[in-house]
From TrEMBL:
Compartment(s) of residence: Cytoplasmic vesicle, Phagosome membrane; Cytoplasmic vesicle, Secretory vesicle, Synaptic vesicle membrane; Lysosome membrane; Peroxisome membrane
PANTHER family with a match to the protein in the record: SYNAPTOTAGMIN (PTHR10024), SYNAPTOTAGMIN-7 (PTHR10024:SF344)
Name of the molecule in the record: Synaptotagmin-7
Record-linked SUPFAM superfamilies: C2 domain (Calcium/lipid-binding domain, CaLB)
GO MF, one example: metal ion binding
Membrane topology: Single-pass membrane protein
Family matches, as Gene3D superfamilies: C2 domain (2.60.40.150)
One GO cellular component, as annotated: synaptic vesicle
A Pfam entry, by short name: C2
Subunit structure: Homodimer. Can also form heterodimers with SYT6, SYT9 and SYT10. Interacts with calmodulin (CALM1, CALM2 or CALM3). Interacts with CD63; required for localization to lysosomes. Interacts with APP.
UniProt record similarity statement: Belongs to the synaptotagmin family.
Spans traversing the lipid bilayer: 20-41
Primary localization class, coarse: membrane
Length: 403
């Protein structure tokens, strides 16, 4: 019986089956190759993405180091300020690099924008920081030691962004210089009138100081606001142990001012109410009570009373005061005072409330102050605006006494 040689045997695959099998095999091979290429591409893209992030970095990464770097004075030369200009962010070469346009580059740019928004220099973060810590400004000074003459030289150069301590929205700053622990012998700069960015450029000499004793001292600078009618208000302080400074040549520093240690303790709080009557053009100030006042007398108590000054621009218009409460750190006054204030003068008006300690044998001591106006601190401004928003209604609020 004749059989066709190309005819399939019962157990052998047909030609069509073999062709399909070959196509499937080739497809699987191509798929494996493509997957391998895909993984390789992902690794390459991931590596470039990581390098892009390392190149961009955070915009403020070098800010702290540059501010803390000392500025050395070359012999016979002028001081060269290498500190960054306030308000400017240091630029890096990596900021000028451009990336090819791609989805990864777009993602890096997006992440960089988010980092800029969340960086320490962002407005949102600065606003949050301003709520937690008051900005007291900073001061620039130089220090060095002359071994031949056994003299320590301190130069007070300038300060920047000092807070306003006066009701006029400015300050009259000057600097006291101490070598702690000695507080009896001090030197002072001149007073710079109505200046929040003063330049002193004054040099002070501590003569006859052996180097062995100098390195045991702490240079202490205290910035104060000069007050003609009462005690000077402390603005901030800086202290630097001289054993941590290379005194072989003059060095210049920028230091942030910190709250003064002699004024950091609580001075107590005062509860008062304000009531504005626009038809009568008057404000009624009610001194209600105080609590946890600072003890100013040797016996651990105080004899408090309250002075209320009405100020218009730079002039003192009217003063009133409460009775004195003997030996009482939690006095209750409940005394009201009315002041005539035309509506058009409200924005130029300040009410200064001073809690005093009565002393028969010496000058009365200031326990603490409160400035109420459009230009005061956040708590004071809130009270002032609440008073305007609720006419003819007493608006009461606790206030922390300040130095």
């Amino acid at each position: 019986m004749y059989r066709d040689p190309e005819a399939a045997s019962p157990g052998a695959p047909t030609r069509d089956v073999l062709l399909v099998s070959a196509i499937i095999t080739v497809s699987l091979s191509v798929t494996v190759v493509l997957c391998s290429l895909c993984h390789w591409c992902q690794r390459k893209l991931g590596k470039r993405y990581k390098n892009s992030l390392e190149t961009v970095g955070t915009p403020d990464s070098g800010r702290g180091r540059s501010e803390k770097k000392a500025i050395k004075l070359p012999a016979g030369g002028k001081a060269v300020n290498t500190a960054p200009v306030p308000g400017q962010t240091p630029h890096d070469e990596s900021d000028r690099r451009t990336e090819p346009r791609s989805s990864v580059s777009d993602l890096v740019n997006s992440l960089t924008s988010e980092m800029l928004m969340l960086s320490p220099g962002s407005e949102e973060d600065e606003a949050h920081e301003g709520c937690s810590r008051e900005n007291l400004g900073r001061i620039q000074f130089s220090v060095g030691y002359n071994f031949q003459e056994s003299t320590l030289t301190v130069k007070i150069m300038k300060a920047q962004e000092l807070p306003a301590k006066d009701f006029s929205g400015t300050s009259d700053p000057f600097v006291k210089i101490y070598l702690l622990p000695d507080k009896k012998h001090k030197l002072e700069t001149k007073v710079k009138r109505k200046n929040l960015n003063p330049h002193w450029n004054e040099t002070f000499l501590f003569e006859g100081f052996p180097y062995e004793k100098v390195v045991q001292r702490v240079l202490y600078l205290q910035v104060l606001d000069y007050d003609r009618f009462s005690r000077n208000d402390p603005i901030g302080e800086v202290s630097i142990p001289l054993n941590k400074v290379d005194l072989t040549q003059m060095q210049t520093f920028w230091k942030d001012l910190k709250p003064c240690s002699d004024g950091s303790g609580s001075r107590g709080e005062l509860l008062l109410s304000l009531c504005y009557n626009p038809s009568a053009n008057s404000i009624i100030v009610n001194i209600i009570k105080a609590r946890n006042l600072k003890a100013m007398d040797i016996g651990g108590t105080s004899d408090p009373y309250v002075k209320v000054w009405l100020m218009y621009k730079d002039k003192r218009v009217e003063k009133k005061k409460t009775v004195t409460m003997k030996r009482n750190l939690n006095p209750i006054f409940n005394e009201s005072f009315a002041f005539d204030i035309p509506t058009e003068k409200l924005r130029e008006t300040t009410i200064i409330i001073t809690v005093m300690d009565k002393d028969k044998l010496s000058r009365n001591d200031v326990i603490g102050k409160i400035y109420l106006s459009w230009k005061s601190g956040p708590g004071e401004v809130k009270h002032w605006k609440d008073m305007i928003a609720r006419p003819r209604q007493p608006v009461a609020q606790w206030h922390q006494l300040k130095a």
